[in-house]
């Protein structure tokens, strides 16, 4: 039955069909059905007999083409208007040709488009149940290929393409809705079908990667990225677009601000609206929390302040910002949060949401997750932001500042000048204080007295406390081993603890999949000579013997050392400094990184590398049994440290 209640429904989403009530009308032979499609897609505009003949026979018209068209028109009138008095009002003949006057609401294409529109509106307001109902109804109208038998005709090419794109859009919207509801198994299946049907459509691949990540399968998501990138390069000689590259990076970083947090966005709240929800214990960051607590006290007294949090990937910056936000709410502050990275919106599917819009949305001054294209002028936004931030004590939290566009950095510099004496605290987080894109902003904030909070790796005691808080019963020796294996990185430690106990340490130890993905991404950034150098170094041990590498690679020091430094910059090697390591420091592998590098080698290539190292050691007279055993490939998990 027609959802609009129209007595007659015309179907183009599959073989052409006309249904009156519960009866499907007999439209006659193929040529007549194609003629009906030709008139329907014209949307009530007249088509001349000559044009109809040309379209139906595609240039090869028989002698009686005009008579045949008129006969088909007559039969269609009889079927569509079995009872009429006088000339047909539905299929009329005017001075410029034949016109089929079908109300828009009688077409299944209209029903489809209106249901999709309602689904988008429901998703925008967060009503996923209604959105799913509407999108399922819309897609349920399709009975087969677009325009049925008419799809191969020249006159139908444009309309077929339009409807096929609309169907793909609707299928993608359905995947977004399923992912948002947490029905990731169905979302993945639907997304897999999309990339098969349209293998070069980037949006479908993005949705598939996002659904795989939501299902706890980040490695598979990263493999899909590589598959798409390879296919795009082979077919078109192009690279993936910025949105997909950003998603790829977000998966490597496990960035919930981009990938979508299953929790609702933190709303502006105060003590009068209830205390912050309970949260897990934050270990090893007492000093940082204390300093920001002082910043909040000053803001409560009307003195604005800024803090900049820096730390390596996985050091816990986002978790620390959550702690700051909860602390502020517990003390009666409003909290406005934003991410400098352009995000995948939970409500709008894939959309770009600028940080300024996110802040205003958190303060209730614009629609949440509004697309960036809808933004008013920046000056108007800035004035609104200043007004809202100064209404009452407010904490403004900005994560991933190094991902924010330069114009947002400029806006923050203006904001710092405008909020000199206001009940506002602003905390920004980024990876590196030396980031060239943010250097101007950081210098300006330093002039305003911003405090710097650099997140160091957790200590052995911190790791032990973290494990206890997580309900893990480990010995002090196991805690020390996990500290060494994780390098004190909270993200890496968390991934290690996800493994079964026998897979964390000892002979059965494994590299967590998420950590392996991050390391592989870093390795991919390096040049081939740098990766070759790392392969030899990994075969040798944890510590980097620069002299030995120079010999086996046949490379001068002035060429080798830049490769080593490049690997340090890419966070594949670590440079140790301090007493006992020499004026220039020493280099080593993080334990898990070395294992990933060794895992990229086949057994035969690894044996060849170790043989080359053993020969070089023998030539230079370093014949210590331990060193030769290492280079020869006979080692234990503790070797080389």
Report on the structure:
The chain is α/β, with parallel strands linked by helices and 641 residues long. It folds into 5 domains: 1-168, Arc Repressor Mutant, subunit A (Orthogonal Bundle), CATH 1.10.10; 182-254, Tetratricopeptide repeat domain (Serine Threonine Protein Phosphatase 5, Tetratricopeptide repeat, Alpha Horseshoe); 271-454, P-loop containing nucleotide triphosphate hydrolases (Rossmann fold, 3-Layer(aba) Sandwich), CATH 3.40.50; 460-515, no CATH class; 525-632, Winged helix-like DNA-binding domain superfamily/Winged helix DNA-binding domain (Arc Repressor Mutant, subunit A). Helices cover 52% and strands 9% of the residues. The chain is built from 27 helices and 14 strands. The strands form 5 sheets. The chain has a 5-stranded parallel sheet, sandwiched between helices. Strands 1-2-3 form a 3-stranded antiparallel sheet, with no helix packed on it. Strand 8 (344-345) and strand 9 (349-350) form a beta hairpin. The longest helix is centred in the N-terminal third of the chain and has 25 residues, at 157-181. The chain starts with 7 loop residues before the first strand and ends in a 9-residue tail after the last helix.
Name the features.
641 residues; alpha/beta; Arc Repressor Mutant, subunit A; Serine Threonine Protein Phosphatase 5, Tetratricopeptide repeat; Rossmann fold; 5-stranded parallel sheet; 3-stranded antiparallel sheet; 27 helices; 14 strands; globular
């Amino acid at each position: 039955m027609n959802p609009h209640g129209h007595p007659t429904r015309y179907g183009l989403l599959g073989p052409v069909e006309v249904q009156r009530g519960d009866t499907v009308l007999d439209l006659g032979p193929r040529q007549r059905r194609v003629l009906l499609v030709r008139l329907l897609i014209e949307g009530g505009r007249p088509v001349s007999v000559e044009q109809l003949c040309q379209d139906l026979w595609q240039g090869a018209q028989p002698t009686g083409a005009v008579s045949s068209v008129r006969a088909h028109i007559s039969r269609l009138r009889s079927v569509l208007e079995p009872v009429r008095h006088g000339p047909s009002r539905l299929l009329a003949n005017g001075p410029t040709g034949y016109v089929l006057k079908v109300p828009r609401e009688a077409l299944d294409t209209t029903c489809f488009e209106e249901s999709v529109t309602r689904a988008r509106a429901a998703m925008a307001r967060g009503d996923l149940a209604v959105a799913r109902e509407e999108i399922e109804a819309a897609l349920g109208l399709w009975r087969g290929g677009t325009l049925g038998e008419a799809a191969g005709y020249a006159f139908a090419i444009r309309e077929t393409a339009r409807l096929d794109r609309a169907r793909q859009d609707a299928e993608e919207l359905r995947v977004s809705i399923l992912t948002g509801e947490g029905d990731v198994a169905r979302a993945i299946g639907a997304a897999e079908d999309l990339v098969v049907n349209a293998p070069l459509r980037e949006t479908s691949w993005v949705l598939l990667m996002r659904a795989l990540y939501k299902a706890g399968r980040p490695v598979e998501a990263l493999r899909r990225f590589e598959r798409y990138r390879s296919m795009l390069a082979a077919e078109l000689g192009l690279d993936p677009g910025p949105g997909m590259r950003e998603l790829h990076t977000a998966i490597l970083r496990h960035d919930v601000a981009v990938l979508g947090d299953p929790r609702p966005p933190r709303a502006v709240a105060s003590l009068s609206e209830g205390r912050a929800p309970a949260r897990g214990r934050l270990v090893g960051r007492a000093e940082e929390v204390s300093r920001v607590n002082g910043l909040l006290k000053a803001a409560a007294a009307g003195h604005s302040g800024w803090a900049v949090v820096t730390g390596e990937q996985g050091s816990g910056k986002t978790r620390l910002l959550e702690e700051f936000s909860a602390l502020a709410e517990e003390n009666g502050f409003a909290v406005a949060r934003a991410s400098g990275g352009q995000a995948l919106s939970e409500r709008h599917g894939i959309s770009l949401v600028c940080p300024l819009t996110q802040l205003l949305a958190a303060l209730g001054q614009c629609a949440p997750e509004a697309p960036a294209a809808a933004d008013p002028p920046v000056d108007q936004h800035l004035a609104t932001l200043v007004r809202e931030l100064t209404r009452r004590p407010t904490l403004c939290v900005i994560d991933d500042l190094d991902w924010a566009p330069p114009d947002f950095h400029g806006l923050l510099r203006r904001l710092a000048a405008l909020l000199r004496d206001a009940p506002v605290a602003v905390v920004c987080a980024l990876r590196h204080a030396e980031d060239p894109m943010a250097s101007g902003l950081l210098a300006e904030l330093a002039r305003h007295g911003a405090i710097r909070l650099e997140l160091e790796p957790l200590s052995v005691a911190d790791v032990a406390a973290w494990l206890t808080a997580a309900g893990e019963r480990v010995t002090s020796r196991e805690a020390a081993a996990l500290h060494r294996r994780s390098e004190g990185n909270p993200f890496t430690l968390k991934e290690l603890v996800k493994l079964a106990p026998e897979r964390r340490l000892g002979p059965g130890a494994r590299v967590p999949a998420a950590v392996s993905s991050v390391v592989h991404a870093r390795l991919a950034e390096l040049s081939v000579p740098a990766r070759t150098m790392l392969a030899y170094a990994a075969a040798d041990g944890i510590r980097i013997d620069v002299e030995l590498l120079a010999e086996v690679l046949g490379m001068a020091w002035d060429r080798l050392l830049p490769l080593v430094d490049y690997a340090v910059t890419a966070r594949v090697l670590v440079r140790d400094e301090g007493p006992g390591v020499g004026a220039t420091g020493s280099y080593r592998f993080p334990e898990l990184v070395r294992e990933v590098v060794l895992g990229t080698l086949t057994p035969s290539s690894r044996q060849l590398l170790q043989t080359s190292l053993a020969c070089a050691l023998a030539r230079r007279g370093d014949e210590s049994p331990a060193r030769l055993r290492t280079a020869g490939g006979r080692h234990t998990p503790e070797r080389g440290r």
